[in-house]
Amino acid sequence: MAEIQVPPAEIIDRIAADTIAILDRLIAFDTTSSESNLALIAHVETYLAGFGIEARRVADDHGGKANLIATIGGAGNGGIVLSGHTDVVPVTDQPWTMPPFALTRRDGRLYGRGTSDMKSFLALALATVPHLAERRLRRPIHLAFSYDEEVGCLGVGDLIGELLQQCTPAVAIIGEPTNMKIVDSHKSIHLYEVVVTGVEAHSSLSHEGVSANMIAVEVMHVLTRIAEAEERLHRNPRFDPAWSTLTIGVIQGGTAPNILARECRFAFDLRTVPDRDVDTILAPFWTAVEKARTDLARRAQGGDISVRRLAAVPALREEEDGEARTLCTMLSGTNAPSTTVSYGAEAGYFQQAGLSTVICGPGSIEQAHRPDEYIEISQIEAGARFMARLVAFVRD
Ligand SMILES: [Zn+2]
User: Fold this and answer.
1) Separation of CA 33 and ligand 1 centre (Å)
2) For residue 82, what is the enclosing H or E element?
3) What is the rounded CA–CA span in Å between residue 380 and residue 384?
4) What's the predicted TM-score (pTM) here?
5) Do 257 and 284 have their domain in common?
6) Under a CB-based contact definition with an 8 Å cutoff, are residues 7 and 17 in contact?
7) Which among 18, 30, 117, 149 is annotated as catalytic?
8) How much distance in Å is there from the Cα of 372 to the middle of ligand 1?
């Protein structure tokens, strides 16, 4: 890969200043995942049009939300994707002391919902556009902004599908907050809801019904054993915690102590280290579900158990000699080894689609999702250096 010349300080300063101005606008759009993101998308389209760049929308089924794709430097192959999500988590019931949907600058920090997670990266990418648009590029740059990441990565699949219809990019950089460190792996996320349907009867007549709660407990017991086995037997020391986690976050069942429960519902969350296969991990669970189904059918008419997958976010796996890591090491100007995160992100989807992928973005996950979310301005400056080097790298 070619050496990158050190970009002039005025370009870095310009990108940093423009990023803060753009961020000020982006924070003002309440793009909580429950709301539409179309006002923000329209704002970005107008901004890009000012540099002669046409953006494409990839709308959701209801037309209330959209992904955005914009290509700078022609639709050739081998491009570099800068990707981030436009939605933010709710501020409801959080004790904010600053306005969440207005940018507040104080003591070297910028406050507002989405400053770390992850509108600063979007703003950095947009602030870099003028420097990319004014020259011929050796490789195209694609902006790929998604919706509904925070509620299970719902938008990114269509976004990638549309992008790949046009060309075959080589590299994806996902700008989730990593303090500009390079992250080469994240865990997968699998969410399931289980509904056990029993048959109600008076608790004194237990032979005339079947308690959904008591069947559900058997199945949950198997999940608990799975969680213990993963922690004991299958460690990957690059992660914290170093094993695949399985937790049961929700249980609802029954109506009174003296009634056999007609229904019990529970949901569990499995996050696997990249080298553990979800089907292997869950094999004892599926066996338990089949056994429960047989039991229910034998003991009571109408008894059943159903399992619904709520989300499946693929893991990001460490690549051997991955181009994304090599590129980002150059762009960040450090030789620090790449690392891992335990949170899930859209990166695994890009990698699954064949792109060499890493996560690298400004801000810290420590500040994400919290009241008074902020980003250090020094992180914006680090991001601006990264983007200025990217400009130098792709320009002819
Ligand atoms: Zn995020």
Assistant:
1) 11
2) strand 80-85
3) 6
4) 0.91
5) yes
6) no
7) 149
8) 16
